[in-house]
Specification:
Layout (H helix, E strand, L loop, with lengths): L13 E6 L3 H14 L9 H4 L15 H4 L8 E7 L5 H8 L4 H12 L4 E2 L21 H19 L3 E6 L16 H9 L7 H11 L4 E3 L9 H9 L4 E3 L6 H14 L3 E11 L2 H6 L2 H19 L5 H4 L3 E8 L8 E9 L5 E9 L2 H20 L2 H4 L26 H15 L15
Parallel strand pairs: 1-2, 1-4, 2-3, 4-5, 5-6, 7-8
Antiparallel strand pairs: 7-9, 9-10
Length: about 450
Amino acid sequence: MDKPRKIEPAKGKLGVLTPGMGAVSTTFMAGVELVRKGKSQPVGSLTQLGTIRLGKRTEGRSPLVKDFVPLAGLNDIVFGGWDIYKDNAFQSAANAGVLSPEDLGKVKPFLSTIKPMKAAFDPEYVKKLDGPNVKKAKNKYELALQIKEDIANFKKANKVSRTVMCWCGSTEVFLKADEVHSTPEKFVEAMKANHPAIAPSMLYAWASVTSGVPFANGAPNLTLDFPAMQQLAQEHNVAICGKDFKTGQTLMKTILAPGFKARLIGLNGWFSTNILGNRDGEVLDDPGSFKTKEESKLSVLEHILQPELYPELYGKFTHKVRINYYPPRGDNKEGWDNIDIFGWLGYPMQIKVDFLCRDSILAAPIVLDLVLFMDLAKRTPELRGRGIQEWLSFYFKSPMTVPGLYPEHDLFIQSMKLKNTLRHLKGEDLITHLGLEYYD
C-alpha cells in the first residue's frame, strides 16, 4: 500500500452551476431533492450506490464509494444555472415532461426557487432555438466577463465554499480548433473581436476556469478541446473533463463492442438510428448540430475495436448513425441498432437492439457523479494540477485526453480506471485481477 494522497475536506456548501436548465439539469435537480427528502433512490449513481473493492477478494472489504473518499454530501449542494428561457426549474421540468406530475409536486416549492440567470447565447451556434432571457454586450469577451460576475454573485449570495460547473446546454454547430484557440492570449483577443470560432459554450468554460471553478462538458461541443483552454486549466489549477454524456445508444455500444472484441467476433456493420422529441432532438434536427453529435458517436467503435490491430475482424466494417426528431416521443428516446457480426469460419450472424430509454433519466446521475468527483478533484492537489481528468472518461462518449493519447472507450476499462484512481488517492493497492496469489 502507498501513502494516501492529500485530499482537502469537503467543508461547507457546494455550488453546482449548469449552463442550460432544460430536461437534463432539472431532472438532476429534482432527483437530488427527492433523494434528500427520502422520497426516491439515486439509481444509476456510482457516488451514491456504488461500492469499491479494496485488497484481496478474501478480505471482504467493499465500502460504498461515498464512504471511501470524502465526497460532498447531497445536503450540501446548492443549485444555480443559466437558460435562454425565463422559466424556473419547476416550470422547465414540467415542460420537459420527464418526471411525473406526482414526483414534481413533491419538490415544486424547492424547484420554483431556482430561477435561471440570463444566458450567453447566439442562434448562429444553435439554430433551432431562441429565447428572451439572453445577455447583451458589445463583444463575446464582455459576455464572458458577465458570466464571471454571475459566478461570483452566486457564490456570495449562497455562501458556498466551492463551486463546480457542468454544461447541460444544447449541442452547438460543428467547429474545428482554429489558430485563435492556440493560446490564452489569442483566445481573449478573439473574444474581443467576436471571432466566429468562439462559441457560447467556450465563454462559460473560460469564465469557469479563470474563476477557479472546475468545468465538465456534457455536450459534444469543442468547448474545452483546444490548447488555450487546457493551458488555462493548468495555470489556474482547475479540473476539466468531457465530453458528451454517455447515455443511451452509445452506452450500449461501449458495453457490447468490448464483448465482441474480447471473444474475437468479427463485425461487418453497425447501423444505428434514433428517434427523440425533446429539446435535444429539435436542436439535432439542424445539420450543423447533428454533425457535432455524429462525430462524437462515430468515434466509439473505432477506438474500442482497433481495426489497425485486427484487420481481418474489424478492418472493413460500416458504421452509420442517424438521429430523427420525432416530437411525440418527447424525452423517451428510442434507439435501434442492427449489428452484422461474423464468427467461426466467417459465418454471418445478426444482433438487433431496441433500447427504449429515457435520455434525461440516464443523464441525471451522470451529472451528479461528475459534480461530486470534480469537486473531489478540486480538493486533491495531485488531480487538479493535471487539468484534464481522464479518469472520468467512464461518463463520456468522447473522453478528453492529453494531445497524442488515444482515449479509452471500453466501459469496463473506464470503470477500472476510475476505481483505481480512487484506490491510488487513498493509498490502497490497485486491483489488477491477476489472482495467482490465491493458488500459491
